[in-house]
Every structure is written in structure tokens, then in C-alpha cells.
Design goal:
- It comes from Roseateles agri.
- It is built from three helices and two strands.
- It has 120 residues and is mainly alpha-helical.
- It has two domains: 1-76; 77-120, no CATH class.
- A two-stranded antiparallel sheet has the order 1-2.
Length: 120
């Protein structure tokens, strides 16, 4: 049985509903796989004679704020340069790839400057 979906034939509302469902499924799979990895990590540590706490301590240089971490990884927050007028919780700092909500508006023909945040 094929679960292939012909997205080209779907309405806008159907596509948005599908994206919402996909986001939910992706998050569920992410959580599930992360738990499996964490369980495996804990078992390998214990089998090697270490505690989970020792394993976590050994990972600290790789965590945000660890030795040699960049400013962004240490928690520096970039100011909001763009804000969605329809949903003010949607923001973008102007760094990196444009936020999905902004890219969607631009694809629909709207200007990025419409969403430039004003100083409060």
C-alpha cells in the first residue's frame, strides 16, 4: 500500500493541514529517536564502567557555552529585525536563512520590508 500524496492536487488549506500533521509527526519521531539514542548512550557508558553523569560531563565542551563555543552558542541573542504582523510570535533576526514564515510571504509576492520590526 503506497502512502504517496499528490501535493500538486491539494488545496492551500489541505497543504497547510498536511504541514501541521507532518510537523507533529516529525517531532514525535525526533523525540522517539532521541530517547533510543540516549538509552543506548547510557547503556554503553554503564557497560564501560562510567556513570551517565560522567558521560554528560565529558560532553560539556560540545554543548552550548562549553569551551570554545561561539557567542551564538553561548546564548547571545540577536535582536529581532523582522516580525510577522499576523502572528507577532514569528520573528527573525535577519541572520542565517530567512524564517519559513517570511520566506512564505516573499514567495507570495510580499516585500520583506513590510515586516521590518520597529524599535519599541
Amino acid at each position: 500500500m503506497s502512502s504517496e500524496v499528490e501535493v500538486g492536487k491539494m488545496s492551500f488549506a489541505e497543504l497547510v493541514a498536511l504541514r501541521t500533521k507532518l510537523d507533529s509527526e516529525i517531532e514525535a519521531k525526533r523525540s522517539e529517536e532521541l530517547k533510543v539514542l540516549a538509552d543506548g548512550f547510557a547503556k554503553k557508558l554503564q557497560a564501560a564502567g562510567f556513570t551517565v553523569a560522567e558521560g554528560v560531563d565529558a560532553l560539556k565542551p560540545y554543548l552550548p557555552g562549553g569551551r570554545g563555543a561561539s557567542r551564538a552558542a553561548q546564548g547571545a541573542v540577536a535582536p529581532v529585525l523582522y516580525r510577522d504582523t499576523a502572528n507577532p510570535q514569528n520573528t527573525w533576526s535577519g541572520r542565517g536563512r530567512p524564517a519559513r514564515w517570511l520566506a512564505d510571504y516573499e514567495a507570495a509576492g510580499r516585500s520583506r520590508e513590510e515586516f521590518r520590526a520597529t524599535a519599541s
